[in-house]
TrEMBL record:
Gene3D superfamilies: NusB-like, Vaccinia Virus protein VP39. It comes from Kribbella rubisoli. May act as RNA methyltransferase. It comes from the Bacteria. Signal peptide: none annotated. The keyword S-adenosyl-L-methionine applies. GO terms for molecular function: RNA binding; RNA methyltransferase activity. This is 16S rRNA (Cytosine967-C5)-methyltransferase. InterPro entries: MeTrfase_RsmB-F_NOP2_cat (IPR049560), MeTrfase_RsmB-F_NOP2_dom (IPR001678), NusB-like_sf (IPR035926), NusB_RsmB_TIM44 (IPR006027), RCMT (IPR023267), RsmB/NOL1/NOP2-like_CS (IPR018314), SAM-dependent_MTases_sf (IPR029063). Residues 185-468 form the SAM-dependent MTase RsmB/NOP-type domain. GO terms for biological process: regulation of DNA-templated transcription; RNA methylation.
Amino acid sequence: MSDRSPRNRAPQVQPDRVRRVAFQVIRQVTAEGAYANLALNKALRDARLSGRDAAFCTELVHGTLRWQGTYDACLARSVSRPLADLDPELLDLLRLGTHQLLNMRVDSYAAVNEMVTLTRSELGQKRTGIVNAVLRKISQRTLDQWIDTVAPSPNEDRLGFLAIAEAHPRWVVEAFDRALTSGPGAAPPGDEAVELERLLVADNDPPRVTLAVRPGLAEVDELVAAGASPARWSPYGAVLEGGGDPGRIDAVASGRAGVQDEGSQLVAIALASAKVDGDDTNWLDLCAGPGGKSALLASLMHDGQLTAVEPLKHRAELVRSNLRAIPGDHKVLVGDGTKPTWPAGSFDRVLADVPCSGLGALRRRPEARWRRTPEDVVELRPLQEALLDSAITSVRSGGVVAYVTCSPHPDETRAVVDAVLARRDDASLEDARALFPGVPDLGDGPDVQLWPHLQGTDAMYLALIRRS
């Protein structure tokens, strides 16, 4: 007699392991507020995924999170009830399936079948029907066809169309449009619309892993010998073209080099290159964590001491770790940069890389665009002004301050500088463009705005201020 009977059903098909890891990471990001890069790196290590599997998992996670707003607009037309009424884990599964169908080279049948299997494993049999039906509906159109269906007409609402077509919240698109119209590094008159679209497209391109050597401890040639290519603008930068783990490179593992976007390198180099008469031995990094710019600045000092200030203890430890390999008696203080514990005029150069919305690094933080709100910009403004005011007070007469943000939002860049300088008669804005030799498209100045679509960096902003 056969062992197989209605009670002895065939074992269920197990879900694809890579997709399962990707879904679990996405849940950590959307439900627990995890950072995608940190959660993904840990998940890849724990699941021992490498090579093609790791690359596939990375694209599943980053792509799903990056295009979330666009996919939600498509899903809203494919589900019979409001998306807000769906269980969050079901919505994440549908987003993950939609990304495979609309933005990856995955066979439609395979994508739907794999997501149904994953649904059965993670959420139970009852949810498989809706996943199957919705994803089959999604698969009936291409991404461009869906955008034409769910987005407003570009002739009637250009910014609304771009928000859907390029997966950015509308308020972010509006802020970028303002920056490209009237801010530092603004587009030439008549080219604003084209430049805005180019910027949004560049924001959706996964960034390359960029490294920075610590001058005096390592040379770019060492990174090139390990498989990197020289960076375009920074004399201390190199790019891992094929990605991979930078920790495998000896210079990185030993602290003689680190991972740092080229834009971050350029603003630190600019501060170190500005002309200062007289003593030049005391530098301050007022908002230092996690310490990449601190390490580059300390390495660029010929003699003297860098003081790095960070209010959070765990981030201060990261600064110490970044400075550990660099010679010199450098200090890390845990404290509030708006309440200096040092006398006014103590420093020759001050970096104020202030907390900001982070809109300049959306390409490397795929979830950030959907987490940030316009209220975040408003709430950060008093702190940004207070830190810049403190930085100017902390620098000596004739010394320089670099006000830096990783955001091109006009309310976090020039507006902050203008507001603080309007209250003081002892500081003035200087033209910083000459401190970025060889870097094109820097606009009319005097401040500098870097862009992903022009310089290939994060959208870093720098204003150079001299104390008089």
